[in-house]
Request: fold
Amino acid sequence: MNEAQETAPAPREATSYSWYVLGVLVVVYILNFVDRQIISILALDIKRDLDLTDSDMGFLGGAAFAVFYALFGIPLGRLADNWSRVKLLSLGLSLWSAMTALSGFAHNQWQLTLARMGVGIGEATASPTAYSLISDYFPKRQRATALAIYSSGLYLGGGISLFIGAEIVQAWNAAYPDGGPMGLVGWQAAFLAVGVPGLLVALWVATLREPVRGIMDGTPARSAPNPFGEFVADLSTIVPPFTVIGAARRGAGALAINLLVAAGLAAFAWWMIQLTGALAQWLAVGVGYYAVFSWACVLRQKDPATFKLIWGTPAFICTTLGYSMVSLAAYALAFWSAPYAEQVLKLPKSELAFILGANGAVSGFLGVIIGGRVADALRAKNPAGRILVILFGVVAPALPIWIGYTTPDPVLFYVMNFLAGLFGAAALGAAAATTQDLVLPRMRGTATAAFFLGTTLVGLCFGPYMVGQISDLAGTMVDGKLVGDLRTGILSLIGVAPIAVVLLIFAYRSVPAAEATLAERAGESA
Reply:
């Protein structure tokens, strides 16, 4: 027994300070999604000033952020388990806020891409640290409530980002029609305005007390003696070029396979670049998928039981990929609905930002809550019952998307956008819970990482980009410039539904048997 276990008390009740910490974390999560999503309402202004296409904007709203957010999430999550969570969150918030502010000084796509990458890396610290802190400030019986309150920041931040972005752009451009101080225009000022306050909030976060790890569960423990050594080791499993070093340490055979896969993905990326002209998108995709392969190889060697229940279980893979199609459409709509309303329906930026922001906040919150309750009720009657809710989240949004993005009526557009968001959000809890049921308790953290790798590297990486690329392909040249067809791009999202349905039907049939044989297939007791 270590010193922490001998001397630390084991409080079982949340204190007023616990709720104070939760309030600070909600503010941080709101900033997280404001900084992540504000690019949506700024998209048309950025596109015009930097001479970008819809596919370029889809990349900036998707893969530029998603790949680095997903890849750094695993090693930074582990660092949160081994080092001061307060310090890590403060540093992460400082990084993503600074990179958001630096986005305001971008003068071309590559500068903005580098800034978005930095935002992704910084934001990868947020939820791992927050989840861990909440678990040590609240007992189990209050933990779900505390996490739900924290998660509200997602919807609040996403909605607020549209409103704030629209107001700043309009006010700045009205005051400085020819550019303001340092030649900054409205969208640049918006990035600065939401980024700089985060630096101040980071100082606030740094004042929080670091709780004893595990104290609420009666098992206090110290942090790891060498957290950054383990962090570097984790980097070698998933972040290139460290992955090559990690493979070399596992032997010549592992290195050869790693390099062969890297070469294959590089060839695929080169082919797609030639086909689409989207250099940045396919470079990011190649790096992201190579990194996931490297991580899976390490997992297979170090923890074969966990590998079998995640990568070796078709039910897990099909559930994750099936839900990833839901997230693909959700991320695409979250990014493109505002530019579509402004460009196609000619709605004023301030109006659409307010209504779509409120739409997203309310529909997302209600969808997650209702979908979770229904999924649990179906699960009580059928081991695969939750899959039915994921299927609903795939199929149900198709009609609202079709109606909403073909009507010229703004009211009908807003209503259908709300319904599409509500129906899609219903699938999240069902998918996450199903993947947790398909692994043993000790594997749930890794299963969560794998699940979010799928939703991020499939959904966020491809959703905004796919709509932009198809919009460009269907677009026309006007005065020497390509004008995309966003309506066609967004309607193409309906085409992913059949793929998801096939995956989820297979998952529905295979989940009961997979769940019933967990310990047997893992070779250990549950």
About this structure: The first helix runs from residue 3 to 7. Residues 1-10 have pLDDT under 50 and may be disordered.
